[in-house]
Amino acid sequence: MASKKIEKCRLCGSDQLVKAIDFGEQYVMGVSNPSDQAQPTKEPLSLVLCTNCSLVQLIYSVDPDSVFHQYWQRSGRSEKHREFLHQVVREAIKHTTITFKDCAVDIGCNDAVLLEAYPPEVPKIGFDPARNMGIKRTSFDTWTIEGRELRNAELITQYFSLPRYKLEREEEKTKIITTVDVFPDMEDPKQFIKDMAEILHPRGTWVNQMPYLPSALKNNQLNIFSHESLTYWNFQTFRKECRNAGLDVYDVQLVGDNDSIIRVFLQQRKTGLNHTSPSVSALAKKEASLKKTMPGLFAQFGESLAINRANLKDIITRSASAGKKTFAFDATAGMSALIQTYGLAAYILCVADRDDQKWGKNISGLAVPIVSPDDPVKMSADFCLVETKASLEEAASLLKGFVSKGGKFITAMPESLIT
Ligand SMILES: [Zn+2]
C-alpha cells in the first residue's frame, strides 16, 4: 500500500499547510491472521493545519479500499452504539416529518443499525463499501443482517456518489440524510457537502455527526486520529463551507464523553423551515478565537500526550514487573492508535472484543491476539486497558467474569488512571 501525499488543503486548496502533530508511521487498523504471509505495512499518520481555513487534515491518504472493503467495527454488536445511532434518528425526526412517501439515506450505513430506527414504512437507502457486514437480500426490498430484518430498504455496497444516488432516486430528494463518522473520511469534503445540498429535500434535514476536534485536543483523545479519517473539524469551518453550498445549520449538539462528538443539523437555506437554536451562536462564539489558538492547542496536546504516555506506561510496566497481566478492550482503530502511539504492544496480553469474526486473529501488524470477552479471566488477567470512561462502562458490562474476580480497569483518556 502506498500513501498519497497532498500538496494543498482538501477544503480550500491553499498550500499554507503547517505541521500540527506527527504520530509517525503506524499500521493501518485492520485484522489479520497470525499465519498470513503478507505482512501489513506501516503508513504515515501525520497531521497538518491549513492556516487559511483552519481545517486539520492528514497529509497522506491511504488507499480507501484497503480500509473500508473489510471493515472491522459492526455497530449492531454494541448495545450502546446502537442506542446512540437510534438517538440520531429520533433527534432528526423531531424536526422533520417523514412518511412512506419520503426517503431516508444513511451514508456509511455499516450493518444498517441506524436505518432500523425509522418507522418500517419509510423507504430507506444505505451506502457502505464494506463487504463483510453479513448483509443478505431476502426479497427485492427486504434484508437480513445477522438475524435482524430490515424492510423497505436498498443497501448499496458502494461508496456514496451522486450518480449512484440518482440511479436509485432520479431527481427525487431525501427527507433525512445521516452521516455518522463518515464525513471526515472524504477526500473531497467540499464536493461531498455540495452533493448533500443537491439531494436534500427542501423540507429535509441532514444530520452530520463526527468527532469534535477542539474537545479531543483538550482531553488527550488521540484515539480520534486514524488513517481512515482524513479531516478533523471544528464547527465554524464546517458551518462556513455548508453555508457556501446553500445549507444552514439550525441546531448543534456536543455529545459523548467530554463533548467529544459534534452533531450538526442542517437544512436548505431557501426554506429556513426550523428556527435556529441558540446553541448555534453559543458554539460559534466559543470558537471565536480558535483560528488563532489552534497551533497552540496542538502544542499543548503534544505535551499533554507525552505526560499521559509516561504515566500510562509507568502504570502498565510496574504492573508487569509485579507479575500482573494487562489486556485491552476492544479492537478498535482508537485502541490500535493508542497501543502504537504509546508503544504498549509488548505489555498487552490480548485484546478482548465482542465480535466473534475477529477471535483468533491479531490487530494488523501487532502481535496482540484478539480474544472473546470470556478469555481474559481464563488467562488470570489483572488489569483491563480501556480508551475512555464510556468504554469502561461498556467493558464492565461485557466482562462480568473479569469484574467479579476483582479485575481492575485502566482508563487511558483524558488521563491515565486505575479504577
Ligand atoms: Zn484550507
The major beta sheet can be summarized as:
7 strands, mixed
Low-confidence stretches: none
* CATH overall fold name of the largest domain: Rossmann fold
Portion in helices: 25-40%
Radius of gyration over alpha carbons? 21 Å
Distance between the termini: 40 Å
Please work out how many helical segments DSSP would assign: 12
Total number of beta strands: 24
Strand order of the largest sheet: 12-8-7-13-14-17-16
> Mean of the pLDDT scores?
95
Strand content: 25-35%
CATH classification, class level of the largest domain: Alpha Beta
Tell me what the CATH architecture of the largest domain is: 3-Layer(aba) Sandwich
Q: Enumerate the distinct ligands.
A: zinc ion
Question: How many distinct folded domains?
Answer: 3
**Alpha-beta content class:** alpha/beta
- Assigned CATH superfamily of the largest domain: Vaccinia Virus protein VP39
- Overall shape: globular
Briefly, what is this?
30% of the residues lie in helices and 27% in strands. With 419 residues, the chain is an alpha/beta fold.
Task: Provide an overview of this structure.
By secondary structure, the chain is an alpha/beta fold. It has 3 domains: 4-60, no CATH class; 75-288, Vaccinia Virus protein VP39 (Rossmann fold, 3-Layer(aba) Sandwich), CATH 3.40.50.150; 295-418, NAD(P)-binding Rossmann-like Domain (Rossmann fold, 3-Layer(aba) Sandwich), CATH 3.40.50. It contains 12 helices and 24 strands. The chain has helices at residues 64-68, 79-95, 162-169, 189-199, 213-218, 235-244, 278-286, 290-321, 333-341, 375-378, 389-398, 400-404; strands spanning 4-5, 17-27, 31-32, 42-50, 56-58, 60-61, 104-107, 124-127, 135-139, 142-145, 148-150, 153-156, 174-180, 200-211, 231-232, 247-255, 261-268, 326-329, 348-352, 362-363, 370-371, 383-386, 408-411, 417-418. The strands form 6 sheets. It has a 7-stranded mixed β-sheet with strand order 12-8-7-13-14-17-16, sandwiched between helices. Strands 21-19-18-22-23-24 form a 6-stranded mixed β-sheet. The chain starts with a strand and ends with a strand. Bound molecules: zinc ion. Zinc ion (ZN) is lined by residues 9, 11-12, 14, 50, 52-53, 55.
